[in-house]
């Protein structure tokens, strides 16, 4: 355990054990090993204190805490209480004086049912406090728990300080609903934390990799498109312009901030403003994927965006958007003529005189172009970080081999004996880990070839799907594209649309070539001669520059938190990167294209596909440098494997602030370990900007929390009935209004406790919490009909807006309303809106005059027409729903628990109690009647009243049927069906 963890625990344990409201909220910087802090608290917990409950934990946190306890050889590991356990089993666990993980839904139900011995509970630990609200289930639990046990502690923890400052006074509101008064802040710049982490820092090597020219062009175009979208969004005058910066838009929280500001007025916004919000999210992903994925995967993602968002997106029509698609294609392939000449589109603004002069000068050339075909020339640009990663791995292995051999003047004990030979490479996601693993084992060229072939096969599959859907090919079978030949028109006749058509046909022809090549031929043409030498065997158009190291130029690590021992700056080995020259980006890209066109050696033309090949010197691959044992780790997995693998060399392929802090804690716990860290950054990229901005955002969040802590005010005594913003109607006021002082000499009547029977599934929402705040008694049971039972007559089915749309789509709502109408006289459908969103069911532009099957208003109208006794109740928020329930219950009897539980549940004899329809009618016979020809919703009730059974219906004459069914045509249809003879086999 790190020393600052001991300070945090001592601050928590300094509180008086028997005082009221002991406990507090602890907020740490991200990555400071919160799971180890929790595990240390569990080791200090003894069985004599009572049972300890841990709430609001996710699976990754539970596994990390248990893993940390196992490393400490702690035997009494906490178990998880699930809904699969019976109530008696759960009660025995509550009294076992151990630590347990439990969900909030199970605990609140057991508390309301008095199944939890609160006097035996030592305390409650709540994780992920940044996700809590005033109406969450955790605050409901703490309010009930505080009312029954005032000496137990409640401690909340969070390692997301940015989430604690979102919204006005969020931290103070969370502490108030959890009945806490102490706030413990532990930022990275805190004295104890900085001293522990900077006492013996690791060796940090900052490796800056230059991006290729096309990557720079894509990044610049995306930023320009993002800036244009932000300027358009600022014109709406509906968003705080201070937050609308390109730096903030790099983070996922930017989408939440903008959407939170626009939610209250979302229904009055135009389609353009709504689309701008979605476009900013798409552009942020484009910047992230540019430095994370390879060129082929990035192009594939752009193709999906063109299909899915090409019609409605605004950023696609920006001036710089065409550069994104153009440069992304040039990273993968080029469209050239078979003779090697570049296929260009002439400028339409050229005058007729220039055109004629050009025609006179190139008549012979045009004739050859007319007969020549178009081929796809592979480029397959590799990620610049790949080559640098391999060089670092080779360098690490060389250092270890040197350390393994003793040198003169040094004892063998001077070398690190804790080196297990494992190199940890930290990537963003699992896909990047798998691709880098393939790169290390197979080589860069083979990885790019595999991705390229997958891309072409997807193109072929899409073309085949379109053909099966009825699109006829223009050429007969076996001619044209399928043979790997694509005819091309003369250069003067090639326009933008024709080039796109030629490119599409050429891709299909290239896919056909890949499909027809045999496996041996594919290996001979495209595979690496040596898998381990993938970083050396490169295709044309990539260049053959060597790595450059500038020992004099030193840079400080962008984290500014790990002391830098060694700092080096590396340039990319890609020859198309020229960071020192002052040429513009377009000139760099054009020079690449012209250079690639002039290099004809080593290229093989296979029909419509030109595959790059190099003459490889056998002696060059004779000495392949060995690589160490590499373990790839996905940062998105939220696992903690540093203590398990014990690596001494860590390569941070995708820099992440949280992982940097975890490495710092890992080094502080192992001060004798010689740890070396390599940071790989793309120079002058948004990757560096995002990493540095994440640190600044966290520091500003803690500064805001420090200011809030100095101004916080809490009431001296909290009785647990802190009510929400709307408290105009109180339960005690309803009874006092009807009390008469003349009765019993002015003695006040005993207040009646209002009860509400709630389905257990509803505890996933916050409404039971607000009802309890309102003063209503909550009785949790399992209901087959409805969500809330307010009285013997009133049953409520609650639907949020999203749930309402889903219920209509699945048809579940019709069944739910039908059962409520069958068993209750006053069925109510409650449509509840969110507190922070607009109180508008639909935008004004979406409301039409016609009845359409897709309109939600039309569906609601048909539902009410089909069930006339159904009542619709619209609620603004949770607090308005609580007031509506209190008003509905004011003149009603309290619901019967046993009766509510039996509703809709058949007995052993198959009889359902209190079935209103079954008591009056034979339900099965009615359903059979409604399915007969000629019987409709408007005449089946008259048929039921006019005859006593189906047998009597079959004997009624045609005139009587016409009278009951309201028409001769319907009666004739039914009579013909009843009198029809059953067909027999001859």
Q: What is the mean pLDDT?
A: 75
- Tally of individual helices: 38
Helix percent reads 40-55%
Q: Do you know the CATH architecture of the domain at 3-198?
A: 3-Layer(aba) Sandwich
Please give the radius of gyration in angstroms.
36 Å
Oligomer: single chain
Kindly state the number of beta strands.
Answer: 24
Task: Just give the CATH class of the domain at 3-198.
Answer: Alpha Beta
At CATH level 3, the topology of the domain at 3-198 is Rossmann fold
Low-confidence stretches: 346-372, 412-417, 469-497, 518-606, 613-623, 719-740
Q: Going across the major beta sheet, what is the strand order?
A: 3-4-2-5-6-1-7
What is the general shape? globular
Assign the CATH superfamily of the domain at 3-198: P-loop containing nucleotide triphosphate hydrolases
Protein structure class: alpha/beta
Taken as a percent bin, the fraction of beta residues is 5-15%
Q: Could you describe the largest sheet, including whether it forms a barrel? A: 7 strands, parallel
Alpha-carbon distance between the two ends: 91 Å
């Amino acid at each position: 355990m790190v020393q600052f963890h001991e300070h945090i625990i001592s601050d928590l344990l300094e509180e008086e054990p028997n005082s009221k409201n002991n406990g507090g909220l602890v907020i740490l910087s991200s990555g400071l090993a919160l799971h180890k802090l929790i595990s240390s608290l569990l080791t200090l917990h003894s069985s004599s204190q009572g049972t300890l409950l841990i709430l609001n934990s996710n699976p990754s946190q539970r596994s990390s805490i248990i893993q940390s306890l196992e490393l400490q050889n702690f035997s009494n590991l906490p178990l998880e209480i699930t809904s699969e356990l019976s109530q008696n089993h759960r009660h025995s666990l509550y009294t076992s004086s151990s630590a347990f993980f439990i969900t909030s839904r199970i605990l609140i139900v057991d508390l309301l049912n008095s199944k939890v011995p609160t006097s035996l509970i030592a305390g409650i630990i709540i994780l992920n406090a940044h996700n809590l609200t005033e109406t969450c289930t955790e605050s409901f639990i703490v309010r009930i728990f505080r009312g029954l046990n005032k000496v137990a502690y409640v401690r909340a923890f969070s390692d997301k300080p940015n989430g604690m400052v979102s919204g006005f006074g969020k931290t103070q509101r969370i502490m108030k609903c959890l009945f806490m008064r102490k706030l413990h802040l532990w930022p990275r710049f805190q004295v104890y934390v900085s001293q522990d982490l900077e006492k013996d820092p690791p060796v940090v090597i900052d490796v800056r990799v230059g991006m290729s020219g096309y990557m720079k062009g894509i990044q610049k175009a995306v930023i320009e498109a993002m800036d244009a979208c932000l300027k358009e969004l600022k014109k709406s005058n509906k968003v705080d312009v201070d937050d609308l910066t390109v730096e903030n838009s790099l983070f996922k929280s930017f989408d939440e901030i903008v959407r939170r500001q626009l939610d209250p007025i979302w229904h009055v916004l135009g389609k353009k403003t709504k689309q701008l919000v979605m476009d900013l999210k798409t552009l942020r992903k484009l910047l992230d994927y540019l430095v994370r994925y390879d060129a082929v995967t990035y192009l594939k993602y752009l193709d999906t965006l063109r299909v899915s968002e090409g019609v409605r997106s605004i950023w696609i029509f920006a001036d710089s958007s065409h550069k994104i698609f153009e440069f992304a294609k040039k990273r993968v392939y080029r469209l050239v003529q078979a003779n090697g000449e570049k296929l260009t589109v002439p400028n339409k603004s050229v005058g007729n005189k220039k055109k004629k002069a050009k025609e006179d000068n190139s008549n012979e050339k045009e004739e050859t172009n007319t007969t020549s075909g178009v081929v796809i020339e592979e480029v397959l640009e590799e990620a610049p970080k790949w080559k640098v990663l391999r060089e670092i791995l080779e360098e690490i292995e060389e250092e270890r081999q040197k350390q393994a051999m003793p040198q003169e003047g040094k004892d063998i004990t001077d070398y690190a004996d804790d080196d297990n030979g494992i190199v940890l490479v930290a990537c963003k996601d699992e896909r990047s880990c798998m691709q880098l693993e393939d790169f290390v084992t197979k080589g860069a060229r083979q990885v790019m070839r595999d991705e390229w072939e997958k891309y072409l096969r997807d193109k072929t599959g899409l073309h085949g799907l379109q053909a099966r859907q009825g699109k006829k090919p223009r050429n007969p079978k076996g001619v044209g594209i399928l043979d790997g030949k694509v005819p091309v028109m003369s250069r003067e006749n090639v326009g933008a649309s024709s080039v796109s058509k030629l490119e599409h046909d050429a891709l299909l022809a290239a896919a056909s070539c890949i499909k027809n090549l045999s496996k041996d031929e594919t290996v001979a043409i495209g595979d690496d001669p040596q898998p381990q030498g993938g970083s050396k065997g490169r295709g044309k158009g990539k260049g053959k520059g060597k790595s450059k190291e500038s020992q004099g130029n030193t840079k400080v690590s962008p984290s500014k938190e790990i002391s830098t021992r060694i700092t080096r700056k590396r340039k990319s080995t890609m020859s198309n990167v020229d960071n020192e020259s002052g040429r513009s980006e377009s000139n760099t890209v054009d020079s690449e294209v012209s250079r690639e066109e002039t290099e004809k050696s080593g290229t093989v033309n296979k029909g419509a596909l030109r595959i790059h090949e190099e003459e490889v010197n056998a002696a060059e691959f004779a000495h392949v440098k060995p690589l160490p044992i590499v373990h790839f780790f996905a940062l998105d997995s939220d696992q903690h494997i540093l203590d398990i693998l014990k690596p001494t060399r860590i390569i941070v392929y995708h820099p992440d602030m949280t992982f940097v802090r975890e490495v710092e804690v890992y080094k502080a716990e192992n001060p004798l370990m010689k740890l070396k860290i390599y940071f790989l950054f793309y120079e002058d990229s948004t990757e560096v900007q995002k990493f540095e901005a994440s640190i600044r955002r966290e520091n500003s969040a803690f500064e805001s929390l420090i200011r809030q802590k100095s101004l916080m005010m809490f009431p001296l005594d909290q009785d647990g009935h802190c009510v929400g913003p709307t408290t105009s109607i109180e339960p005690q006021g309803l009874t006092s209004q009807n009390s008469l002082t003349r009765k019993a000499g002015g003695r006040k009547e005993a207040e009646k406790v209002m009860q509400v029977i709630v389905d257990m599934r509803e505890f996933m929402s916050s409404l039971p919490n607000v009802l309890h705040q309102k003063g209503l008694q909550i009785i949790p049971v399992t209901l087959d009909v409805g969500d809330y039972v307010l009285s013997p007559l009133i049953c409520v089915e609650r639907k949020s807006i999203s749930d309402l749309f889903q219920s209509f789509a699945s048809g579940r709502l019709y069944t739910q309303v039908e059962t409520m109408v069958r068993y209750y006289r006053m069925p109510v459908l409650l449509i509840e809106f969110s507190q922070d969103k607009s109180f508008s069911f639909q935008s004004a532009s979406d409301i039409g005059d016609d009845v359409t099957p897709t309109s939600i208003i039309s569906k609601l109208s048909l539902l009410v027409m089909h069930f006339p006794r159904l009542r619709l109740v619209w609620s603004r928020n949770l607090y308005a729903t609580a007031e509506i329930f209190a008003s509905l219950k004011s003149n009603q009897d309290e619901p019967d628990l046993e009766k509510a539980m039996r509703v809709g549940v058949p007995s052993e004899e198959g009889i359902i109690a209190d079935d209103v329809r079954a008591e009056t009618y034979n339900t099965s016979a009615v359903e059979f009647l409604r399915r007969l020809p000629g019987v409709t919703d408007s005449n089946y009730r008259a048929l039921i009243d006019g005859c006593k059974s189906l047998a009597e219906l079959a004997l009624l004459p045609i005139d009587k049927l016409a009278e009951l069914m309201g028409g001769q045509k319907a009666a004739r249809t039914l009579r013909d069906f009843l009198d029809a003879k059953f067909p027999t086999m001859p």
